[in-house]
Design a protein that fits this description.
This protein has 15 helices and 16 strands. The strands form 3 sheets. It has a 7-stranded mixed β-sheet, sandwiched between helices. Strands 11, 12, 13, 15 and 16 form a 5-stranded antiparallel β-sheet that branches. Strands 1-2-3-14 form a 4-stranded mixed β-sheet. 41% of the residues lie in helices and 16% in strands. It has 2 domains: 148 residues, Aspartate Aminotransferase, domain 1 (Alpha-Beta Complex), CATH 3.90.1150; 243 residues, Aspartate Aminotransferase, domain 2. The structure holds pyridoxal-5'-phosphate. The site of pyridoxal-5'-phosphate (PLP) has 15 residues, from helix 6. Keywords: Aminotransferase, Pyridoxal phosphate, Transferase. InterPro entries: Aminotrans_3 (IPR005814), Aminotrans_3_PPA_site (IPR049704), PyrdxlP-dep_Trfase (IPR015424), PyrdxlP-dep_Trfase_major (IPR015421), PyrdxlP-dep_Trfase_small (IPR015422). Belongs to the class-III pyridoxal-phosphate-dependent aminotransferase family.
Amino acid sequence: MRANSLVELDRAHLVHPLASYRGHEAAGVRVLSSAKGATVTDAEGRELLDGFAGLWCVNAGYAQQSLIDAATKQLSQLAYATGYFGLGSEPAIRLAARLAEHAPGDLNHVYFTLGGSDAVDSTIRFIRYYHHAIGKPEKDQFISVESGYHGSSTSGAGLTALPVFHTGFGVPHDWQHKIPSHYAYRNPVGSDGETIIAASVASLRAKIAELGAERVAAFYAEPIQGSGGVLVPPAGWMKAMHAVCKEHDILFVADEVITGFGRTGPLFASAEDGIVPDFITAAKGMTSGYVPMGAVFLSDRIYDTIADGAGDAPIGHGQTYSGHPVSAAVGLACLDLYENGLLDNGRMAGNRLLEGLYSLADHPLVGDVRGRGMLAAIELVTDKERKTPLPAEADAGRRIFDRAWANGLIIRAFNQGILGYAPPLCCTEEEIDTIIDRTRMTLDQTLEDKDVRGALKD
Ligand SMILES: Cc1ncc(COP(=O)(O)O)c(C=O)c1O
């Protein structure tokens, strides 16, 4: 089918995630038609380096034969098996066991979902159930962090702290509360790590005091805030927040939907942060985006309390596709890749990526460079001293994305002038260097824009 007839069909029928529907109709879809390794090809034959791994998910790169083989073999052997009625399938059981082996501490129990949003949503339900089971149903208040993203389910969207996910949707709910982000580049307390940690600890303590510790059920945080603009907390931040929660008997959820599966280096960022959360949520890299799958990891204590609390009664939480055998088979093949070199390559490529991005720090538009492993960002400003964001007319989200695209590079261009990077972990050094070269070209072109030039400090 010709690309332009696809554009018409898309315009007429396909509802896109997080899009201005009218804006998208006017712009028209860009159709991707094939991909291999870190390179995707669009319907016009243009090849692009995917510096964002789809949506921070294609960690193994495209057209990985072992993943394709795992899926096709499982499709012909057993395309579906429910986990209801006491049934199961070998891939789901084996994947849960292998994940439990890799997960930090006693996070030994895995509930499979279809992605990140329903993983977060499942934690809300498990947490409520847990507190009922221990006889404290009044512990029903939830805290998360400004600029955080925890998906767009009816409940999870209220833990998310990005206004566009709230407006018009009636969230956050009155049981969902926020504390300020650690956002080091623009933190009112300054950029010193210890000071930021102390401020976040004080904010969390104050919020707990305001609500009453006996009412607070759980605290949610991403090891690195992804959709909020790749905001990297100072080392020790997660540990400090975890300690406050422990002190007040508040459950701690590490939302590792982006950071899990090698994105920051290890299989779980929580391991690097030195914490064993009560729950981890994961998705994306677990199946490298080839097939949908997410997971909730539950600690022994949480699992046992829920199990004993229910006694012989069933726990009313489930989905038709929980533990889907095809997704699980791909998950197992992904784990093989992670264990046999993909994590190592990701670490190597991540060092190169950060080195490359730091080499852009002296560019007139680059105010901040940050990242960990293969998760990084640069933040653009027109005045480095004042940290003045690009002018609104520069329409950074659209213009820079389009420009990078024209230069053969896919990145995430956030509206506030932040460029996000999350390349496949399989990238070669040459591919990383190309990402940097094409970024530099994109920045140089942006520097020539009239509105940007006009706003630049002389
Ligand atoms: C930290 C975090 N949690 C949850 C989600 C939601 O995941 P999904 O889009 O698979 O529903 C995302 C998605 O980007 C995420 O980054």
